[in-house]
Specification:
The protein is built from 9 helices and 6 strands. The chain is globular and about 45 Å long. By secondary structure, it is α/β, with parallel strands linked by helices.
């Protein structure tokens, strides 16, 4: 599923990830990159099975998707897509972009959004040349991560002149830390939107991965 609003714009951003759970850092990155890159729409694309995390057990697809929907409700320039969730096998970015390109047509310029840590690893991704040919790379600076754009362009020639690095507020929040906080009963509620904190609590997400934490007080 891809919304009609996403398919009808000339500059489209794609923000992929596990979103397990989505947090305020994801939202800040999406908002600032959309503004700085003049994007008309941003798709949040939860991965079915991230190829770089083959052994990680994710929260159910429906829960991760719902937390995204709760986070972006009321923001017409943001939407969630089940494109990767609907496709079996590893969620390869090149495959996703090829499918999006087929749906949008050549008039839409695609921007794949990522953090500096992802740019550092980009030359080792599956078919990086194809990704760079299909979409510009919109990159948010990350705390403590220094990457040479020139080095990436040398390793992936198709990326030459197609990497836009944008300064964003340094928000050091991670989904893995939030999951750990839920399991151990430590505070996390201001690292996600209130609707997501309530959903995590009411659905019992992440606590069930560690039975000893089930009786911990809500954050």
């Amino acid at each position: 599923m891809v919304s009609e609003a996403a398919l009808s714009v000339s500059r489209l951003g794609i923000l992929g990830g596990s979103f397990d759970p989505i947090h305020v850092g994801h939202l800040v990155v999406a908002e600032i990159l959309a503004y700085e890159l003049d994007l008309e729409h941003v798709i949040f694309l939860p991965a079915g099975q991230p190829p770089h995390k083959p052994t990680q057990t994710l929260a159910p697809d429906a829960d991760r998707l719902r937390m995204i929907e709760l986070s972006i409700q009321g923001v017409p320039e943001f939407s969630a897509s089940t494109l990767d969730l609907d496709r079996p096998g590893p969620s390869y970015t090149a495959d996703t972009l090829e499918e999006l390109r087929a749906r949008t047509g050549p008039a839409t310029e695609l921007f794949f959004l990522m953090g500096m840590d992802s740019l550092r690893d980009f030359p080792r991704w599956h078919r990086p040349e194809r990704i760079a040919a299909l979409a510009r790379l919109g990159v948010a600076r990350r705390p403590g991560v220094d990457v040479s754009r020139r080095e990436v362009e040398i390793q992936v020639p198709a990326a030459r002149g197609r990497i836009d690095i944008i300064n964003v507020p340094l928000i050091d929040i991670s989904s893995s830390d939030i999951r750990d906080r839920v399991r151990t009963g430590r505070p996390y509620r201001f690292q996600v939107l209130p609707e997501v904190a309530a959903y995590i609590r009411e659905a019992g997400l992440y606590r069930r991965l560690q039975p000893a934490a089930l009786g911990a007080p809500d954050s």
